[in-house]
Design brief:
Shape: globular
CATH architecture of the largest domain: Alpha-Beta Complex
Number of domains: 2
Strand order of the largest sheet: 3-4-6-5
Largest sheet: 4 strands, antiparallel
Helix content: 40-55%
Order of helices and strands: HEHHEHHHHEEHEHEHHHHHHHHH
Strand content: 5-15%
Distance between the termini: 20 Å
Structural class: alpha+beta
CATH class of the largest domain: Alpha Beta
Mean pLDDT: 90
Radius of gyration: 20 Å
Length: about 350
């Protein structure tokens, strides 16, 4: 694929300008020290990620979500450490989530705490989402990226799952154990850091970024939970919440895609509005439901094509297509090329950061 086509797709403008979407600094305050340990120059990494030297000084501050991905990709490249995302995720504790972390700590059960994080993740992150699903015999807590064109997706997934494992251990106690960990990127040459942190052999080239564990943990009560502090945290979150429609629609669509049910009716229901109201409000912002859905699907497809070796049939299914043929037609309409040609001619994002 011509470079200009890839760049146009990566930086295309959509309503709700994703360049304004942010990530809470939180535990990233420790990233400069980590970069120095790896032999990288923190000042240079911050500058190349389009951030000021003081951008990571305070955990309550925010940085652009795109810069968050760029930071991790640059850290991996400059520090010669492909698992830098795992190292960053290990720095996180629930308290680094601010008001959302308070809400989790004072939820009644572990399941309530994880659902609180999933529902209110947008307060801390404008380009990625946490989710919790339950099936017979397994609970799945995972992370997905919906901001278009983010560099460092593999590193973000590593950091999110490493942080999620720490959150679960904080909530459940030292006896907590994961059953399975899935990463939507290729297997690294050295998986030792992954096994060491997650205490299981991870599975790579997966369709999702997720932690799987026994659902019995979800009913565990959280010691010290205070209903009054829960309500106080909820009030703080409501003051922080923004009501930008297009990012909310993208968030909802990416979440629905993970559940395998993508439709305008489902999206409108998630946003507590009528389908016609959703269409009208999107039209007022210069876009359509199909246009936003296409953008979310393209980004998810790009991540899986560039980051994994998954068969096209599996990618099509994960995007909500009944078969590979309609996915291929849509992908050609979006990009002017086929998924296979994109994969063969593409440059993996983590390499571009070098």
């Amino acid at each position: 694929m011509p470079d200009e086509t890839r760049q146009a797709l990566r930086h295309s403008t959509i309503p709700g300008d994703p360049r304004s979407w942010t990530q809470r600094v939180g535990a990233l305050v420790h990233l400069p020290a980590l970069l120095r340990e790896l032999g990288a120059d923190p000042g240079a990494v911050l500058a190349d990620a389009d951030l000021a030297p003081t951008a990571l000084d305070h955990g309550d501050d925010t940085i652009p979500y795109a810069s968050f991905g760029r930071l991790l990709a640059l850290g991996a490249a400059r520090g010669g450490c492909p698992h830098v995302g795992v190292l960053v995720g290990r720095l996180y504790r629930i308290d680094d989530l601010g008001a959302v972390g308070d809400l989790m700590r004072h939820s009644a059960t572990v399941g309530d705490a994880l659902r609180a994080l999933a529902v209110h993740q947008q307060v801390n992150s404008g380009g990625g989402l946490a989710y919790l699903t339950e099936r017979p015999g397994v609970a799945e807590f995972g992370y997905a990226i919906y901001q278009p064109g983010v560099a460092g997706a593999a590193e973000i997934f590593d950091a999110a799952l490493a942080a999620g494992a720490h959150f679960l251990r904080e909530l459940c106690g030292p006896s907590f154990a994961l059953n399975e960990v899935l990463f939507p990127h290729v297997r690294p040459a050295d998986v030792t850091p992954y096994r060491s942190h997650f205490h299981v052999v991870p599975r790579f080239d997966a369709e999702v970024a997720a932690l799987r564990f026994s659902p019995s943990w979800l009913s565990k009560t959280i010691s010290g939970a205070d209903p009054r502090r829960f309500q106080a945290a909820l009030h703080r979150i409501e003051r922080l919440r923004r009501d930008d429609l297009v990012p909310r629609v993208m968030y909802a669509l990416r979440l629905l895609m993970l559940s395998g049910h993508v439709s305008g009716e489902d999206t409108a229901r998630m946003l507590s509005m009528h389908r016609r109201t959703l269409n009208r409000r999107l039209k007022a912002q210069g876009t359509t439901f199909q246009g936003v859905l296409d953008r979310v699907r393209l980004e998810a497809a790009r991540q899986l094509l560039e980051g994994t070796r998954l068969p096209l049939d599996d990618i099509a299914s994960s995007l909500g297509y009944a078969s590979v043929s309609p996915f291929m037609r849509s992908f050609r309409r979006w990009t002017g090329t086929t998924p296979g040609q994109w994969r063969r001619g593409g440059t993996v994002v983590r390499r571009e950061a070098a």
